[in-house]
């Protein structure tokens, strides 16, 4: 579900991927994400886990393969194992999601530390969250 971004300093962005089937910060996982219209429709799509929300929920930002060059709300991260077609991806830094661990469909890949740090820096610049990478 989409949530309001935590307050300035209210989220610790960390990089802790572990290929164990659980959603960890730094991993791209697949989950159901509602469309921007918030009309009950949505689709299964990849999201990047950026930190812990509660004991059983994590914060995430969605990925898209639709090009968004020049948009301040999207950061290009290139391609990765999360997209079987090998298409380049963009991270939407404007929309923040809370994903329940039971709602995760599959663990797709871990973003490498350098690309994760670029995403973390963009989120820090926008929201003032702490980076612990």
From TrEMBL:
Keywords: Toxin-antitoxin system. It comes from the Bacteria. GO terms for molecular function: DNA binding. The keyword Chaperone does not apply. InterPro entries: PemK-like (IPR003477), Plasmid_toxin/cell-grow_inhib (IPR011067). Residues 1-20 are annotated as: Disordered. Belongs to the PemK/MazF family. This is PemK-like protein. It comes from Microbacterium lemovicicum.
């Amino acid at each position: 579900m989409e949530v309001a971004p935590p307050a300035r300093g209210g989220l610790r962005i960390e990089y802790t991927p572990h290929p164990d089937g659980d959603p960890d910060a730094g991993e791209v996982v697949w989950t159901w994400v509602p469309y921007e219209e918030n009309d009950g429709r949505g689709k299964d799509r990849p999201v990047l886990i950026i930190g812990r929300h509660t004991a059983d929920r994590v914060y995430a930002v969605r990925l898209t393969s639709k090009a968004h060059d020049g948009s301040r709300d999207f950061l290009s991260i290139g391609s990765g194992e999360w997209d079987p077609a090998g298409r380049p991806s963009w991270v939407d830094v404007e929309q923040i999601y809370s994903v329940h661990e039971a709602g995760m469909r599959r663990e797709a890949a871990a973003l490498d530390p350098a690309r994760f740090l670029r995403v973390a820096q963009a989120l820090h610049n926008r929201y003032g969250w702490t980076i612990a990478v």
